[in-house]
Amino acid sequence: MGALFGGGDWLGEFQQLVEDDGLSREEAIIELYKRRLKRAGDFEFVRSIRVLKPDSDRPYFHLVYATRHAKGVNRACQGRERVLRATGGGARHADPRLNDGW
Fold first, then answer.
1. Considering its fold, how many domains does the chain have in total?
2. Do 35 and 62 sit in the same domain of this protein?
3. Which residues contact 63 (CB under 8 A, 6 or more apart)?
4. Is the same domain home to 101 and 56?
5. Which of 4, 34, 56, 82 has the highest local Cβ count within 10 Å?
6. Model-level pTM?
7. How far is it between the farthest Cα atoms of the chain?
8. What single string gives the DSSP state of each residue in 25-43?
9. Is the dihedral of CA 66, 68, 39, 12 positive or negative?
10. pLDDT class for 3, splitting at 50, 70, 90?
C-alpha cells in the first residue's frame, strides 16, 4: 500500500482523515490518493468521481483525473459523461459526495 500512496506516513494521514475529519474509509482513501497524486505529479487540479455498478448502489470504481491546466478539467468533465453513459448513465451512478463538483 505504501507504493500506491507514495510512501511516507500514509497510514497516519489516512487515520487523521477518518478520525479527525470524519471521512468514511472510502472517502479517506480517495482523498489521500488525490493528495499524494497532486503532490507527486505537481498537478494543479485533481478530481475524482465515484461510479456505481449498473443496477446497484455499490461502488464500481473511482475515476481520478489530474491535470496542470484548467482546460484539462473541461476534458475530464467530458470523460466523466462518457463513463456515466457507458455504465448505465445518469446521475444515479455518480455519488455527489465523492464527485468533486464535476
1. 2
2. no
3. 48, 49, 51, 79, 80, 83
4. yes
5. 34
6. 0.74
7. 39
8. HHHHHHHHHHHHHHHHHT-
9. negative
10. confident
Tell whether 33 and 52 lie within a shared domain: no
Do 19 and 58 have their domain in common? no
Whose cell is 448502489? That residue is 57
- What's the CA gap between 43 and 76, in Å, rounded? 14
Separation between Cα atoms, residue 84 and residue 12, nearest integer Å: 34
What residues contact residue 72 under an 8 Å CB cut-off, 6+ apart?
Answer: 45, 65
Domain of 17, in residue numbers: 1-41
- pLDDT tens-place string over residues 32-61: 999 999 999 999 999 888 888 878 888 888
Q: Which three cell numbers stand for residue 98?
A: 465523492
Could you tell me which of 47, 38, 39, 100 has the C-alpha nearest to residue 75? 47
What dihedral angle (degrees, nearest 10) is formed by the CA atoms of 89, 99, 16, 23?
-60
